[in-house]
Amino acid sequence: MRALRYHRYGSPDVLEIDELQELSPAAGYAKVRLAAAGLNPVDWKILEGRLRFVPLFRGPPRGVACDFAGTIVGLGGGATERHVGERVMGSLLPFGRDGACSEYIVVAYERLVSLPREIDDIQAAALPLAGGTALQALSDHAHLAAGQRVLVIGAAGGVGHFAVQIAKHRGGHVVAVCSATNVEFVRQLGADEVVDYTRDDFTQREDRFDVVFDTPCASSFSNAKRVLTGSGCYINTGADTASAISAAMSAVVARLTSRQRAIPVILKNGPPIWRRLLDLARKGVMHAHVRTISMNEVGDAFRAMATGHGRGKQVVRLD
Ligand SMILES: NC(=O)c1ccc[n+]([C@@H]2O[C@H](COP(=O)([O-])OP(=O)(O)OC[C@H]3O[C@@H](n4cnc5c(N)ncnc54)[C@H](OP(=O)(O)O)[C@@H]3O)[C@@H](O)[C@H]2O)c1
After folding, report:
1. Ligand 1 mean position to 138 CA, how many Å?
2. Are residues 133 and 260 both part of a single domain?
3. C-alpha dihedral over 1, 96, 46, 53, to 10 degrees?
4. How confident is the model at residue 206, as a pLDDT?
5. Best label site of 63, 70, 258, 315, fewest CB within 10 Å?
6. d(CA 14, CA 16)
7. What is the number of the ligand 1 atom nearest to the C-alpha of 265?
């Protein structure tokens, strides 16, 4: 079977399509024929070795990508509701060596969820990491309620474009921050107002926000404080080590000094949030804006993603 992999950390130039032995699932595992793999910034960060110091993290040879959708083609035995022919989606843990840019993978039964008929494989593979982060941030951390005001920084990106749609669904007034080229895209997602950050600085606004969701970590709690309500929260994604540490420290300081909060999101990437995402997608609340690519185009996709100016999602078609 073919799989996109790398044998040492490096730039996308180290990616190769390897021919591997067919997999056979052990008890408790399903063999999945993959149809689509969703790309995320974490995938190129792993490729470059930026996470190599994370405990339990396994180095190359490794496969590429975590998020996937496909169809079960074999079961390894043991009690399960799973069945051959079932369409499923999921996301591999980033610690292991398996990647979703592969013809087949073997996954534990409990790390798969069933796909409803209405959701195609490309849409499903776009959801887990980016959609899960947006949903967890706005719903579980911010508890965004109808009528509240939310500022989404990086509104055109993978996480941000889901965040705009989720925030509108929850009845929020959404002010979206993006560059000039994405203003129309973000408006079409449903944003009430759009701020082009190359012309206007959101921290100088006179209005206040219950939530500032900083998806690319382009700002900070101390910058956002001025535009937060007295009990508002600033949430970021810990895009790099510095912003993760800064958000964690801000979280402590904010607790001690005010009612405002700073929250670094660490996604609980598993079946409960995937089911919630699928439910929202099935109801038409959120739709991934996807550029579909082939395995051969992943290197260029990573190069583009590393500039920090992604629009929507990039999904690799594998079938
Ligand atoms: N903590 C977690 O569990 C978790 C989970 C998922 C993702 N993440 C992290 O979250 C970050 C965002 O992920 P993503 O998938 O959304 O990335 P993405 O698709 O590349 O989107 C990033 C967005 O940021 C915008 N941007 C760049 N510079 C900006 C600036 N100065 N001001 C405002 N917006 C700016 C870009 O828009 P323009 O082109 O319009 O500038 C782009 O749309 C990544 O670092 C990722 O690793 C963390």
Report:
1. 16
2. yes
3. -150
4. 93
5. 258
6. 6
7. 1
What is the Å distance from ligand 1's center to 154 Cα? 6
- 22 and 67 both lie in a single domain: yes
Bridge partners, 178 (sequence order) = 196
Q: Do 215 and 141 fall within a single domain?
A: yes
Q: For ligand 1, say whether the CB of 247 is within 6 Å of any of its atoms.
A: no
Q: Taking residues 123-152, what's their average pLDDT?
A: 98
User: Helix or strand or coil: residue 230?
Assistant: strand
Q: Which of 79-88, 132-141, 201-210, 241-250 has the weakest average pLDDT?
A: 241-250
Residue 116's pLDDT is 97
Dump strand ranges (E) for 192-308. 193-196, 209-214, 228-236, 261-264, 290-293
Q: Do 31 and 307 touch, CB atoms closer than 8 A?
A: no
State whether 135 and 224 are in the same domain: yes
Give the domain range for residue 62. Answer: 2-127+288-317
* Rounded mean pLDDT, 208-222: 96
Residue nearest to atom 22 of ligand 1 (CA): 157
**Residues with Cβ < 8 Å from 68, sequence gap 6 or more?**
32, 34, 36, 37, 38, 89, 90, 91, 92, 100, 105, 125
138 and 121 in a common domain: no
**Ligand 1 pocket, residue 195 CB under 6 Å:** no
Q: How far is the CA of 177 from the centre of ligand 1 (A)?
A: 11
The CATH number for 70's domain is 3.90.180.10
- For residue 279, being part of any structural domain is answered with no
User: Cα(141)–Cα(19) distance, rounded to whole angstroms?
Assistant: 43
User: Residues 256, 136: one domain?
Assistant: yes
Give yes or no for residue 239 CB within 6 A of ligand 1: yes
The answer to whether residue 244 scores a pLDDT higher than 90 is no
Q: What is the CATH number of the domain that holds 241?
A: 3.40.50.720
Q: What is the mean pLDDT of residues 227-242?
A: 90
